[in-house]
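Convert to structure. Protein one:
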Amino acid sequence: MVEVRIPSTMVLNDYHLYNIEIVVSPERQVHKLSKRFSDFVEFKKELEASLHRTIPYSLPSKYSSLYKSKESTIEQRRVGLCEFLQGLLNDESLRNDTHVLEFLYLGENTFTASEAADGLQTGWADESKSIKTLLQTVRSKLFARDTNLVDCKRIMDTCGAKLDKLERFQDEDGLGAGEKRRRQNVVGQQRKEYEELCVLVRSMINANGLSSPAKPAFKRSLGKAKETQETKPLDNQQLYQHQQVLMTQQDESLDQLRGILQRQKQIGLTINEELSVQNELLRGLDDQIDISQRKMNSAKTRIGKIL
């Protein structure tokens, strides 16, 4: 977990600088630097250009200074820049990017130790997710038409071993009390589900034996597949080639659809950004109207007293 703070600002040559503090776990070393707001704007453009996509972290509006006081604008930008960096530096897909490291004057191995420390928790979470998947697999197999009870039993044995391992590591050193309780609740719920499925598997084995796979209760006859006029004159090789052509055409259609959706997404993002700017301008205008209305009411009151 990377912590970002911007506790203060300062003025240098008529420019406002934002004093940034970056705290990287587990050493908790504080890295300090100062940046102008325009530096962030330029950095975001360069980063998105290098990635060929829009990052999901936004900067404060450049237009707030048009209708807000200088102090309010600086405070809004201070909070917004802190949130921007907090999201960026806790995004594992972005924080090791060369542009990010150079912009913040960080070394290439800055986040290596932090990622290693987070790996323990990630490994536990992955194991828990694996158990959940196995339990879902067994449940779906049990209610399938061609139930393979031997396969279900083998999966349950694997799931039991994983649960035992998960229980041993749910109280790792360095975990907070809240995280320990969360892990205990997750393991307890998965253990309960595991035991219920074990009872169900055993009862089905006792009722049907260990035949693999069990005979289905019924067999559906689909009849002979009908050929179309297009495929009837084709031999096996020609039919295979025909199928390949159809699949290629489908792939091309999907690629075209994906391109259309990507363009629509980009248009939507652009519209959203423009609407955000317009909304801020409208809010500023609304504030000015309220101020003007109060002044007008005050003037009417004074005129009434004079008359």
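Protein two, convert as well:
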Amino acid sequence: MAFLDNSGDIILDAVLTDAGRARLARGDFKITKFALGDDEIDYSLFNRNHPSGSAYYDLEILKTPVLEAFTNNTSLMKSKLMTITNTNLLHLPIMKLADGGYQGESEKAANTKLGNIGTYLVTVDKNTEDTQTSLVKPDTSGKGIILGQASGGGVNYILVETGLDTLKVPPSLDVPANLQETQFIIEMDDRLGTLVTPSGTPGAVPASFIDDDQVASYFVSANSGQAAGGLIRERWDTFRGEENAREGGEGGTTNHRIRGPRGRMLQFRIRPSLNLATSTYLFEKLGSTFTQTADNTPVDGFKNGKSYYYIDTFVRVTAATTGYSIDIPIRYVKKTTVE
């Protein structure tokens, strides 16, 4: 990774991604779309008080070094630029992990919480899920543990919210129709796991594309019938705390992390790959180990004195309308011994 000096002439540094080179080799390479991003830019450098006047307000931004072009399509452009003709917009939708909902304490969202180490934990085989020799309790609710081999995947799942995360627009309003998300792109390492529905149904969502780095992309649409399978759902409620009294709500606090108007939500589980379930090869090549020093320490939900292999990775979710994306931390866990 390197930066290009941007203090003088404008530089255009272009390379083909791995997918682009593969298509060029096949003879079917054709540029039909392009995207722009601003990952390197710090907009706080915009200086309205520059002593030389308005022509210099953005000088520091224009001189910001830019990253050189990457051939790996998964390593850049997390924040894509978009064109919006409505110049009156003050807020754009974002995505947030539900992670237990409002202040992490929503009863309805309890099973969406991250584990105590800040990641979701996916158990890869029955041995790791054994409640006599591995898990502290059969009930893993609220501990971020997704049972990868159990029927239905257990009670925990991953939930991503969309909406306007601001207190300046009441949550009783709807997200503007042209900014509502109806499609999501989910990317994950296909060597490690696959996407399944919240009910744990395998094969219901086939990968749309797997690139040369074994990153699988899943395109999920609210208009394709997949919403009926539970992957895309509507918001839980429209009110939040003190606004209930003003707007005639039902009382209590919201279940949501998004503070303003809320859009659709994406929910799913992960099923570990056959390789992880039956072998330690990838754990030894890509991961490490940890040993519990007490029940629930250092990882909540696992027994004292037991040792585990683990691989840390992430799942990236991108909203198709705005291009906003978040990286969701995932840890695959496998008990080192069979008892």
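The two ends are 45 Å apart (CA to CA). The chain has six helices and 15 strands.
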